[in-house]
Amino acid sequence: MLAVAILAAGKGTRMKSAFPKVLQPLNGVSLIERVLSSCKSINPDRHLVIVGHQSQEVKHALNNHSEIEFVQQTPQKGTGHAVQQLQPILQNFQGDLLVLNGDVPLLKQSTIYSLLKKHRENQASVTLLTAKVSDPKGYGRVFTNEAGKVNAIIEEKDCTPEQLKNTLTNAGIYCFNWKELNHVLSSLSDNNAQNEIYITDTIGKLSKSIHLEVDNPTEVSGINDRIQMAQCEAIHQENLRNHWMKEGVTFIDPPSCTLSDECQFGNDVVIEPQTHFRGVCIVGNNCRIGPGSLIKDSTLGNLVTVINSVISNAKVLNNVVIGPFSHLRPN
Fold first, then answer.
1. What is the rounded CA–CA span in Å between residue 15 and residue 21?
2. CA–CA separation, 293 and 269 (whole Å)
3. DSSP element (H, E) containing 184
């Protein structure tokens, strides 16, 4: 049995937004929708979303997910306090609990699968994701022995100057044996610099704590403000462009172009600088798009050329030249 709990109760005050942080869009898809998508392949038995700040807005945004069980956290007193709210909900649950963050949108399905696999093969009490980063500022530090067992996780504000030199950081993603976790949850304290209850304090209380280090630290990038949002957007766009370049698409100036997740390209397509795709876009073979063009929710046939133009909700047949300076309006 497997339950997934997504932490989505925080205020996200640094976003300076009227909307909850987990509903902020990354390439047109909310952060929490991306997190939900990342755990589809492991097919969990329970889907739990812990809400607090603007909970009604979050619930409304996810009302098409009938499988979700919403759990209220009021007040919000830290990650450990959030997971404590699951105790009555999972009172008779037997299995593993995967804890994800609603503001970590780039996590790959394959990484979650590897985390779960390592956790079960080692019959661990908890397996956590870690990352070695060159600038670990703001992250909790993970301390292990030579065998790879995790001895402790210490939040940055509680670290000594010597402990701050450690670059192995906590990604905030955990797979717990629920029975063992449930046994120690009630013993957690808020006696720390933040006066919060940390889920990390369970690590030293559990019998077998291990970790899985991610190959690419950007995968576990969290979002707290607009700067980090832009950084994650840039990483996501680079991943999309790299995927299509490996599939044979030519980008003349890759960083100047943006794609949607739903783009599909044929063979020998050339994308000129300052060209952007939004929504479901299907581009046929031997097309040349741009420079300076916007394609939105449109289908382009083969041998189509688009120069300095906007195409919205349109279907373009084969051997068509559009532009410069054309606007194909919807339908």
1. 7
2. 14
3. helix 178-185
Contact, 73 vs 52, CB < 8 A? yes
Distance from C-alpha of 325 to C-alpha of 323, rounded to nearest angstrom: 5
Helix, strand, coil fractions of the chain, as percent rounded to 5: 25, 30, 45
Closest CA to 97 of 1, 188, 211, 171: 1
Could you tell me which of 284, 289, 281, 270 has the C-alpha nearest to residue 317?
284
Separation of alpha carbons 174 and 180, rounded Å: 13
pLDDT digits (tens, 9 = 90+) for 252-290: 999 999 999 999 999 999 999 999 999 999 999 999 999
Instruction: Say if residue 194's pLDDT is above 90.
Output: no
Residues 6+ apart with CB under 8 A from 95: 1, 2, 3, 45, 178
Q: How far is CA 268 from CA 285, 304, 307, in A?
A: 6, 12, 17
Examine the residue annotation and report whether 120 is marked as an active-site residue of this protein: no
293: left (phi over 0), alpha (psi -120 to 50) or beta: beta
pTM: 0.93
Report residue 171's pLDDT band, with 50, 70 and 90 as the boundaries.
Answer: very high
Q: How far apart are CA 37 and CA 223, in angstroms?
A: 17
Average pLDDT, the chain: 96
> Annotated catalytic residue: which of 14, 46, 141, 288?
14
Q: Residue 215 CB: number of other CB atoms within 10 A? A: 9
DSSP string, 257-286: -B--TT-EE-TT-EE-SS-EEESS-EE-TT
Tell me what the mean pLDDT of segment 237-259 comes to: 98
CA 219: distance to chain centroid? 8
Residues linked to residue 21 through DSSP beta bridges, in sequence order: none
* Residues 266 and 287 sit within 8 Å (Cβ to Cβ): yes
Q: What gap in Å lies between CA 125 and CA 2, rounded to an integer?
A: 14
